[in-house]
Amino acid sequence: MAKPYPQVILLGDSLLEFAATVHSGFSFQAALQTRLIRRFDVVNRGFSGWNTANVVKYLPEIFSEPSASSPKIAYLRGDRQIILLGANDAVLPLETTSQHVPIETYKENLSKIINDARIRAHNPKILLVTPPPADEIKLKGLDIAQGHASAIRRSAVTASYAEKAREVARENPGVILVDLWQAIMGEAISMAPGDYQPGGPWLGSPENGKQGGLDTLLPDGLHMGGEGYKVFFDEIKAHIGQDIVPEERGDYVLPDWRVVNPPKVALLPKPSPLQ
């Protein structure tokens, strides 16, 4: 019987679907798989345009009941699971939009997802990620160009959905919060400190009128570019793979070549090509 690898599942919307793509020379999923190579498989279950209601409906088709032959979900995202949803739930309920999920229903849906029996049966380490900020200043022009009367996302509304994700993490013991909203906004402020006054309106909001570093981190006002995904990866590194010692290969799912083909002479360590 084949030996299944434990999995790290990326469950969410386009912010995770696009994590597989190379943005300005950086791919979040490739960086994570490299960090976990030969120990975990990173499986992308990001669905562009989906909201939490869609995920709840299709959970039985996304996750199967665990069995002796099925891979163990390590992080949800499987054995580990990363969940990043909310950017589409926070779309405003306008005549031209269809993705909006009321904020309390969004909270309920997140709780349903992380407590679903198919997921909990794997006893995964769950990382719940807040949606990142929305750059309403940039989104307004792009949304109007697509035929909407105004921006379909508001900076303040997206921030309130991020707060609901924080509440869900606090109310579910064992769930780890990854505050991507705070990480992206903090980096955006550090990139242009003169554009934000402490206690004042956030970058990307009409009240502030300036985008600061959001212009680089969120190139289209919603999705992360390479620099934004690097910020996200730095947040995830604190929780996944932090205990891996690359030179120690005893935790490989399948054995190192030195085990299956023992060298005839003592070999000195070779520098990693990734260093």
UniProtKB/TrEMBL annotation:
<dbReference type="InterPro" id="IPR013830">
    <property type="entry name" value="SGNH_hydro"/>
</dbReference>
<protein>
    <recommendedName>
        <fullName>SGNH hydrolase-type esterase domain-containing protein</fullName>
    </recommendedName>
</protein>
<dbReference type="InterPro" id="IPR045136">
    <property type="entry name" value="Iah1-like"/>
</dbReference>
<feature type="domain" description="SGNH hydrolase-type esterase">
    <location>
        <begin position="10"/>
        <end position="230"/>
    </location>
</feature>
<dbReference type="InterPro" id="IPR036514">
    <property type="entry name" value="SGNH_hydro_sf"/>
</dbReference>
<dbReference type="Pfam" id="PF13472">
    <property type="entry name" value="Lipase_GDSL_2"/>
</dbReference>
